[in-house]
Every structure is written in structure tokens, then in C-alpha cells.
Design a protein that fits this description.
The chain has about 550 residues and is α/β, with parallel strands linked by helices. It has four domains: about 110 residues, Up-down Bundle (Four Helix Bundle (Hemerythrin (Met), subunit A)); about 120 residues, Response regulator (Rossmann fold, 3-Layer(aba) Sandwich); about 130 residues, Rossmann fold (3-Layer(aba) Sandwich); about 150 residues, Reverse transcriptase/Diguanylate cyclase domain (Alpha-Beta Plaits), CATH 3.30.70.270. It has 20 helices and 17 strands. It has a five-stranded parallel beta sheet, sandwiched between helices. It has a five-stranded parallel beta sheet with strand order 7-6-8-9-10, with helices on both faces. Strands 12-13-11-16-17 form a five-stranded mixed beta sheet, sandwiched between helices. Helix 18 crosses helix 19. The longest helix has about 35 residues.
């Protein structure tokens, strides 16, 4: 049903374009007559060239390939006349006039419309995302272990449902599919083993892309081989390292949390922009369209695109000029800009790309080619950005990237004057953890806090590893009281996470300081105030959250 609706929408756009086409051709012929008659309006030739260029690109997109080819010939012939002033020679006039008449004839004879390849593009797997709560099914017949699994994994945002018998889990699977399944190998005497259960459901779970994890008291090769043959994704030995288990579950289900690509289209042909937007949206992307430089600059900050698809010829500001303006802002230096145009001259393409664009796609372009080209470039941008911006251990923003993002958020909040909280937090007595248990264990503690912050803060909040065991957070559109409540909730949950080594178990806490925008309005002032509040929290006994205004 959804596929049919998408087809209907694309066909409606094509029908709308078909209805506009006769008027477009008449407008082009009228402009040409004005040019031939010596009309001195300065923008007349520019408008005629723009309309022909637009027709060459849009007609092919909507299935009018012959008209697209004829318009491209006219555009090519016009290039020879750009240096001359009308009236043109008889031969030049006749050549253009004849081509324009052919456009009209093609339309009237009905020879132009060819079936449009508008089959729905299969959504990209990266963009598929479950909207329900992350659900974990657990098959465990020991109440103490089951309760500990619920307690620890709930901290990381999992909704845990425990079953004591395999038949109970089987029944649940006929009603609802979880994000992952956790199974103990050894169940009660009158039940099958965990691996036997998973073997029976292996093909079904594989087709549903549900990862499975096994718990066991044994690490022998026979048990691990049996688990592998049952299609198990991960194997953990009791007592459980819940930090490692939570991290592995995140990795196994990370395809569900991938964000769709964000694409910004700048195209003055509204119907063509709608067509591109619909094609990319059907491929699982988030798309926004713009028609002016002012609207584009605003969308760059608010929409934060991962790729800009830009028409080369625009009425008030050319694509090359727009690219140059965008590159003036260092925040968008690495944003991929892809020109989309009928321009076929390689020299002109290279000249246009010198303005700051990264690639050049040729109109008309098929739906499949458009999706593939945009996906490839957006994937590359996202990967490179992660390498540059992310802390390698935690996957959070690194120190520099966090400060740059804070600067962007300050600019955004200055326009609305909404409140924003900036938090600095530090793991208490972390040096003692490293000294007693070793740096690898200390690294796991840092990663456990990073995981918790990702799970308990909103997607609109910004989290960075500021250095060592210190983290920084920007809580957008948040009042001080609300920010204190959230950070205190996270502080309490972090204190309940069981940190494990081979020989011991222990717990950690953190302290935090908080400052507010618009009370303070610069990066340095907000970070310094939060750091001072953090220092006060440490001085007052640790495991506390203090707001800057509370003691200043």
C-alpha cells in the first residue's frame, strides 16, 4: 500500500509537469521573439537561457527525453551567440527558430512522453530504524541472575522481559519480536538447553535480523562450538561483565539506530525539486528543499545536512556563487556540495567546481543513479566526519569538535533566546581505579559512562569526551531545574552500574558542574563556569551536581 502511494505521488508530479509543459514552451518562444525584435531588457537573454537550461534538465527527469535532447541542442547553439548582440543573422535566427518549432511539434504530435522509470527505489538498510522501545528477551531460570540482568541493562535503556521456560519465550515470539535475545545455556532439568532452543529458531531469527547472545558458566570449546552452530552472535561467561555486555548489545543492534542521511536540495524548479525530494525520501533519507540563498544559509544551520544538491543555474544567485558563500563559513568547509545541471562541457564543470563543489551530476539523472550517487557521497562524508570529530574510545565528540558544536548551539540559541545548559562532569577518584585495577579496567569505566550518557540524554543533546575521565554536555532548550534533575538521575544510575574485573566488583560515581545560557553567552565563559561548579562539587564531597549560580 505504501509503495502504491509513493508511485501515485511520483505520477502526480509527472502529470503536473505535463500540464505545465505547453506553457513553458510558449514562454520560451515568446522570449526568443522579444530577443530577435531587439528588446533591450538586460535580463531578457539571461531568462531565456535559464528557461532553456531548466527545460533540458527537467524534461528528461519526467520522461520527455526527446524534448530534453532538443532543448540541449538549443542551449548549445545559444553558447555561440553569447558574445553577440541582437539582431542576430538570418541563419542564426532561423536555426534557433527551427529548433523551437520542433519543440512545439514534438509536444503536439505526442511523440515525446516515454514511460517514466518511476519504480520505487528500495529503502537503504542504513536508514531503517525501529521507533519502539529497545526490547530484550531473556531466557533465564535463576531469579537472582535474572533480576541482576534487569537492574543493570535497564540502566542502559533496555526494556528487559525475562522468561523462565523456553515455551514461554516461544509464545512471546509469536506475538512480538525483540531487538535481541539473551539465553542461558543451562536451563531447568525439564527444559531444553539454550543452544537447542536457538538452533530450532535459528533461521527465523536470522531472517528477522534478531541477534542472539548466550550466557554460560563454561568457556570450553564444545559449548562455544554448539553456540556458534546455533547462530549465536556473542558468548559471555558468568559472572557477567555488564558493561561489556551492554556495549556488545549496542553494537549488535546498531543498525536500528542509524540516522537517515540528511540532504538539502537547492533548485528553483519547484516541481523538479519535489521530484528529487520524493525519490530520496523513498530511499529513506531526510530531505529539505530551498529556492534562495537566504533560505539555504538558514537551513544549513537548522537542518545540518550531510550533502547539498545544488542546481548550477539559479535566477538570483548562481550555484557557483552560492557555493562560494557557503565555503566562507568554516563550519561547512567539509560539507559535500554536488552540482546538478545539464551542463556537459567538462571545462565549465571544472570551473564551476573551483567555487568549492565536490562533484558534478548530469541532468537528467535516473532515480536509481540519483539515490546511489547521493548515498555514496553522504556515506563518505559521515565516515570522514566521525574519524575527525569522534573520540576513538567512546565514539563521543572529541574536545575540539565539542567546542565547535557548542559555538554553533550558542548562535542558534541566541536567535531564540531559549535556555541551554552546559555540563562538565568528572569520574570521582578515577586515578585510584587505574592504580588498583589497571588502565584497561579504567577504560571500561569511561566507556560505561559514555554509554549511559548516550542512552539517557536526548538525540538533540551534545556529548563530548573532554579529556581523560572528564565529559562535557550541552543540553539544548533546557531550563536549569530540568538539567539538574536529568544529570542527577544519570549520576544515581551510574553509581549502580556494577564494574567487574576477574577478581573483584566495584562501583563508581561522578561529580558535575552546570552553567546556563543566556546567563553566560560565550564558549569560554560557559565552560569555565561549569568547570568551577564541578570543582565545588568535588570540594563538597564528590558524587554531587552543582549549578554555577548556586554558589557564585
Amino acid at each position: 500500500m505504501a509503495n502504491q502511494q509513493r508511485l501515485d505521488k511520483l505520477n502526480a508530479l509527472r502529470q503536473n509537469y505535463s500540464q505545465q509543459l505547453p506553457q513553458r514552451i510558449q514562454e520560451i518562444k515568446s522570449l526568443w521573439r522579444d530577443l530577435v525584435n531587439g528588446d533591450k531588457k538586460p535580463d531578457l537573454r539571461q531568462n531565456f537561457q535559464r528557461l532553456i537550461h531548466s527545460l533540458a534538465g527537467s524534461a528528461g527527469t519526467f520522461g520527455y527525453n526527446l524534448i530534453s535532447e532538443k532543448a540541449r541542442i538549443i542551449e548549445h547553439n545559444l553558447e555561440k551567440l553569447l558574445g553577440k548582440q541582437p539582431p542576430f543573422s538570418v541563419q542564426e535566427n532561423v536555426q534557433i527558430e527551427h529548433s523551437l518549432d520542433e519543440l512545439q511539434q514534438l509536444l503536439e504530435l505526442g511523440l515525446t512522453q516515454q514511460p517514466l522509470a518511476c519504480s520505487v527505489v528500495s529503502p537503504i538498510k542504513l536508514a531503517s530504524k525501529k521507533t519502539d522501545t529497545r526490547l530484550l528477551f531473556v531466557l533465564e531460570n535463576e531469579p537472582e541472575i535474572a533480576q541482576e540482568i534487569i537492574t543493570q541493562l535497564t540502566i542502559y535503556g533496555w526494556q528487559v522481559r525475562v522468561f523462565e521456560q523456553s515455551q514461554q519465550l516461544s509464545s512471546a515470539l509469536t506475538i512480538e519480536l525483540p531487538s535481541a535475545i539473551l539465553v542461558d545455556i543451562m536451563l531447568s532439568d525439564n527444559d531444553v538447553t539454550g543452544t537447542e532452543f536457538l538452533s530450532a529458531y535459528q533461521q527465523t531469527l536470522k531472517e528477522a535480523a534478531i541477534p542472539t547472545v548466550v550466557l554460560s558458566a563454561r568457556w570450553d570449546w564444545q559449548s562455544r562450538l554448539a553456540a556458534a552452530r546455533a547462530g549465536v552472535s556473542a558468548y559471555y561467561v558468568k559472572p557477567l561483565d555488564f558493561v561489556a555486555l551492554a556495549e556488545r548489545l549496542d553494537k549488535l543492534t546498531q543498525q536500528d539506530s542509524q540516522e537517515p542521511f540528511r540532504v538539502l536540495i537547492v533548485e528553483d524548479e519547484i516541481i523538479l525539486a519535489e521530484h528529487y525530494a520524493e525519490v530520496l525520501t523513498q530511499a529513506g533519507m531526510q530531505v529539505k528543499t530551498c529556492v534562495s540563498l537566504e533560505e539555504t544559509l538558514l537551513s544549513l544551520e537548522q537542518f545540518e545536512p550531510e550533502l547539498l544538491l545544488l542546481d548550477l543555474y539559479m535566477p538570483d544567485c548562481s550555484g557557483t556563487e552560492m557555493a562560494m558563500v557557503i565555503r566562507q563559513d568554516e563550519r561547512f568547509n567539509d560539507l559535500p556540495i554536488v552540482f546538478l545541471s545539464t551542463e556537459s562541457g567538462r571545462q565549465l564543470q571544472l570551473s564551476a567546481m573551483q567555487s568549492g563543489a565536490d562533484d558534478f551530476l548530469h541532468k537528467p539523472i535516473s532515480n536509481a543513479d540519483l539515490v546511489a550517487a547521493v548515498s555514496l557521497r553522504a556515506t563518505r562524508f559521515r565516515s570522514l566526519r566521525q574519524l575527525i570529530r569522534q573520540d576513538s574510545m567512546t565514539g563521543l565528540l572529541n574536545h575540539i569538535a565539542f567546542k565547535l558544536q557548542l559555538e554553533i548551539e550558542i548562535s542558534r540559541h541566541q536567535r531564540t533566546q531559549q535556555e541551554m545548559a552546559v555540563v562538565m562532569l568528572d569520574i570521582d577518584k578515577f586515578k585510584q581505579v587505574n592504580d588498583v585495577y589497571g588502565h584497561p579496567v579504567g577504560d571500561r569505566v569511561i566507556k560505561s559512562l559514555a554509554q549511559l550518557l548516550r542512552k539517557r540524554l536526548r538525540k538533540t543533546d551534545i556529548i563530548g569526551r573532554y579529556g581523560g575521565e572528564e565529559f562535557a554536555i550541552v543540553m539544548t532548550h533546557t531550563a536549569e531545574e530540568q538539567a539538574l534533575q536529568v544529570i542527577n538521575m544519570i549520576r544515581e544510575q551510574f553509581g549502580k552500574i556494577r564494574q567487574s574485573t576477574e577478581s573483584a566488583e566495584f562501583f563508581c560515581t561522578f561529580s558535575a558542574g552546570l552553567s546556563m545560557f543566556p546567563n553566560l553567552q560565550s564558549v569560554s565563559a560557559l565552560l569555565e563556569a561549569s568547570d568551577q561548579a564541578l570543582y565545588q562539587a568535588k570540594a563538597q564531597g564528590r558524587n554531587k551536581v552543582i549549578a554555577y549560580a548556586a554558589y557564585s
